[in-house]
Design the sequence.
């Protein structure tokens, strides 16, 4: 079931944190990408959600919490900006959506 949670549109239409999931963009073995709507800022963003069991131990969460702020400092025209991240229940990165 954990693999199915991030596939086949199970999350479409759901909300978590302050994001409304519109559609799945892509998925792989460890994660999936979704086009979402940021309900607080009123903009479209892409959410990179890591599958349950992927880095969900405390060491993985610590690594994720350390890496996300470093990624958010990157500023380059070929890299989308990281807007938000969370590592409490679901590990995810929110980033600029580029169609």
Sequence:
């Amino acid at each position: 079931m954990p693999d199915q949670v991030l596939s086949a549109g199970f999350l479409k239409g759901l909300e978590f944190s302050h994001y409304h999931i519109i559609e799945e963009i892509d998925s792989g073995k460890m994660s999936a990408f979704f086009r979402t709507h940021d309900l607080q800022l009123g903009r479209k963003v892409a959410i990179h959600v890591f599958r349950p069991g992927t880095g969900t131990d405390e060491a993985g969460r610590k690594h994720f919490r350390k890496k996300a702020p470093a990624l958010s400092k990157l500023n380059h025209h070929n890299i989308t900006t990281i807007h938000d991240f969370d590592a409490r229940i679901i590990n995810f990165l929110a980033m600029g959506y580029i169609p």
